[in-house]
Amino acid sequence: MAPVVWQNVAMDSKHLLVVFHSQSGSTTRMAEAVIRGAQSPDIQGVEVRAKSALEATGEDLLWSDAFIIGTPENFGYMSGAVKYFLDRSYYDCEGKMAGKSFALFIKAGNDGSGAISSIRRILNGLAVKEVQQPLLMVGDFDESRLDECEELGLTLAAGLEAGIY
Ligand SMILES: Cc1cc2nc3c(=O)[nH]c(=O)nc-3n(C[C@H](O)[C@H](O)[C@H](O)COP(=O)(O)O)c2cc1C
Q: Which of 16, 75, 92, 109 is most buried, by the most CB atoms less than 10 A from its CB?
C-alpha cells in the first residue's frame, strides 16, 4: 500500500494580490518593496501574486483574500491604468468581495489625496475594508521610505497568515 504523505502546502494557503501601475518608475520601486515584504521568508502559507494594472483582471481580485493597489496620482486621480483595471473588474467582483482587506500605496508630486479618494470611492461599492492607512509618498522619491513599503506588504501578509485579514 502506498504510504500516506501529508503535504502542508497550497490547499489552505491565503492569497495576497498586489496590483500597481507606474509611468516613470517611482511606483514600481514602491511596489517592488511591497512585494518583497509580502514575500518575507517569515511568512508561511501566503501566496503572493503581483500584476501590472494593465494585466490584472477581476479574476485576480476574486482569487485574492486581500489586495494592495499602488498608483501614482495623475491629474488629481488614480492613474488611467488603475482606473482601467477597476473598470474591467468591477462587475465581475460586485457582491463577491465583501469583507476582503485592502491597502493602498500612492506616489504623488505634491498631493495624492485625489488618487486615494477616487480609489476608495470605487472600492466602497465592493464592500471591502481598508486595513492600513494609505502609504503616500509625495515629492522627490525618498529611498528611506521603502522600508515602510516593505512593512506594508509584510503587514498584509502577516495579517492573512494570522487569520486577522
Ligand atoms: C500627467 C501627469 C499628471 C500628474 N498629476 C499629478 C497630480 O494631480 N497630483 C500630484 O500630486 N502629482 C501629479 N503628478 C506627479 C506624479 O504623481 C509623480 O511624478 C509620480 O512620482 C509619478 O509616479 P511614477 O513614477 O510611478 O509614474 C503628475 C504627473 C504626470 C506625468
A: 16
Interval between CA 119 and ligand 1 midpoint (Å): 16
Q: How far apart are CA 54 and CA 156, in angstroms?
A: 23
Q: Residues 76-130: pLDDT tens digits? A: 999 999 999 999 999 999 999 999 999 999 999 999 999 999 999 999 999 999 9
Cell numbers 507606474 label which residue?
22
Q: What is the C-alpha separation between 165 and 160, in angstroms, rounded?
A: 5
Alpha-carbon span 78 to 118, nearest angstrom: 7
**How far does residue 77's CA lie from ligand 1's centre (Å)?**
9
Question: What residues form DSSP beta bridges with 15?
Answer: 47
All domains in the chain, ordered by first residue: 12-162 (3.40.50.360)
